[in-house]
Amino acid sequence: MDAQIKKELLDFIWSEGLLAKGHLVSSPEHPEKSYRIVIKKDEFMDIIAEQNGDMLVVVPEKSIMAFSKKTEKTWEPKYYENLSIEDKLVARVHF
Fold this sequence. Notes:
Layout: H1 3-15, E1 23-26, E2 34-40, E3 43-49, E4 55-59, E5 63-69, E6 75-82, H2 88-91, E7 92-94
Antiparallel strand pairs: 1-2, 2-3, 3-4, 4-5, 5-6, 6-7
């Protein structure tokens, strides 16, 4: 993983307090641009760095939440998508 991507991912994870929910491991699906936070057996979330600088918090089969960098150490929500709703116009909420 590129050092800058790693720094951005870890800064985001710390700033959002995501490690309070579980422990950090490498992501088997996107090791070059993401980390996985394991909450308990068979429950996890992937934190993925997008090329445009956004961060995605993905809970498989449940939801995706995108964040944009606001300042050096703060992030703001960009959109939330409920993956259990089939109608994509209803499923995605922009902030």
